[in-house]
Amino acid sequence: MKLLLKWILSACALLLVASLYSGVQVQSFGSALWAAVVISLLNMLVRPILVVLTLPVTLLTMGLFLFVLNGLMFWAAANMLSGLHVNGFWAAVWAAILYSVLGMVIESALGRLFPQQ
Questions:
Q1: What angle do CA 35, 110, 97 make, to 5 degrees?
Q2: Rg of the chain over all Cα atoms, to the nearest angstrom
Q3: Cβ distance 10 to 40 under 8 Å?
Q4: What b/e readout covers 7-32, taking b as 16+ CB neighbours within 10 angstroms?
Q5: CB of 102 within 8 A of CB of 13?
Q6: How far apart (Å, rounded) are the C-alpha atoms in residues 10 and 60?
Q7: Strand pairing report for 24-26 and 84-86
């Protein structure tokens, strides 16, 4: 139940990012659902490898390079899907920041709805 609710809320967050920021366009709620899945999979499978590979740059920039990695994941998802369009790399970085903030809000809300026993 929690996973399904998180998926739907993540798609809604993606639609909210698209409505708040003109650098991102989402065609429909169905496209947002697929984009939420692809972004989640990229963040789960590819991002950890990139974090390890770019650790020296991340340390040198005091963690700011992680924003670039988040933007790359968002941009990669937009390039894989036809229903999600991003107007360039820096638009993807800003969209990823907004999407991450909304994701933290979703996690917090779901943590209150479904507390650990």
A1: 45
A2: 14
A3: yes
A4: eebbbbbbbebbeebebbebeeeebb
A5: yes
A6: 32
A7: antiparallel
Half-sphere exposure for 7 (CA within 13 Å, toward CB):
12
Tokens of 65: 């390079």
Beta carbons of 71 and 90 less than 8 angstroms apart: yes
The C-alpha atoms of residue 105 and residue 90 are separated, in whole angstroms, by 23
Q: Give the per-residue pLDDT at 79.
A: 95
Domain extent listing, the chain: 2-108
Calpha distance 67→6 (Å, rounded): 22
pLDDT for 115: 85
Would you say 80 and 19 are in contact if contact means Cβ atoms under 8 Å apart?
A: no
- List of the chain residues with pLDDT < 70: 117
